[in-house]
Amino acid sequence: MRASERSGLAPQTLSGQIATLEASLGVTLFRRQGRGLALTETGRMVLDYAEEIFRLGAELEDALSSRAAGRAVPFRVGVADVVPKAIAYVLLAPSMHLPEPMRIVCRENKLDQLLGELATHKLDVVLADSPLPPNMDVRGYSHKLGESPLGFFATPALAATLQGPFPACLDRAPLLVPGTEAAVRGPLLRWLETHKVRPRIVGEFDDAALMRAFGEAGAGVFPSAMLIHDEVCRQHGVSCLGTATEVTESFYAISVERRLTHPATRAISSASPLAGEGTTTEG
């Protein structure tokens, strides 16, 4: 009865429409519960989809009205916590210079959490240091923005204690490395092994900004993408010891669409400052 009152339809009409929908879908959405009806498991799933459809419809209406009124269009970005914040800014900067005003809404989290929000359209795109993992139950596309070689940085005081040319100077040197979730960690450790360099790993960090803070304090040599070489040296008072050209840190824009349609997403893809190939792969 309450559903009838809320919809403005007679009970018989509402029952008929439910029966028609169930027949069309070939499923049972409701079951008898006492004198009323309760959703079946399938009915709850359909309700979740319906609520998402209405939410997206409301967002579309809001985006269109914002554009018509000259208000900023929201650009909802998830940034995986292993992506350095300075890199995230460089990648997102092109979206701030579009003809139509944009309002960037950034969320930082673990990649799997962000991909869940992407799948439910709570995010427009996710920035990550690796493509969509094949074991994730999320249908999406990975758009490679490019890659940057890795450099090694140290304070002048620490650099003065190191012996020999690069990379031999890293042997037995204190080294700060990215955490286990960073895609570049494995290639970095293999590079050290290939060059028969055995530094002392004194710290592991999920947050690149925290790793650089320790490096600034002289706790150890630390790696960083050469894309932000100048900023790292200026901000942290360090110098670059050398570049591991064989080790590159890659960055991706992950979306639920093969062809990017959001103007801000297209902007960061086409104007990426990284020297990448711009490839797209399906997850």
From TrEMBL:
Domain of life of the native organism: Bacteria
What InterPro entries would the database entry show? LysR_HTH_N, LysR_subst-bd, WH-like_DNA-bd_sf, WH_DNA-bd_sf
Question: GO terms for biological process?
Answer: regulation of DNA-templated transcription initiation
Any Pfam family hit: HTH_1
Boundaries of every HTH lysR-type domain copy? 1-40
Keyword DNA-binding appears in the UniProt entry: yes
Which UniProt keyword terms apply here?
Activator, DNA-binding, Transcription, Transcription regulation
What is an example of a GO molecular function annotated in this UniProt entry? Answer: DNA-binding transcription factor activity
Lipoprotein keyword on record: no
Q: Cite the Gene3D superfamilies for this sequence.
A: Periplasmic binding protein-like II, Winged helix-like DNA-binding domain superfamily/Winged helix DNA-binding domain
Family to which this protein belongs: Belongs to the LysR transcriptional regulatory family.
Kindly give the PANTHER family that the UniProt entry links to this protein. TRANSCRIPTIONAL ACTIVATOR PROTEIN NHAR, TRANSCRIPTIONAL REGULATORY PROTEIN NAC-RELATED
Q: What is this protein called?
A: Transcriptional regulator, LysR family
Please name the source species.
Answer: Azoarcus sp. (strain BH72)
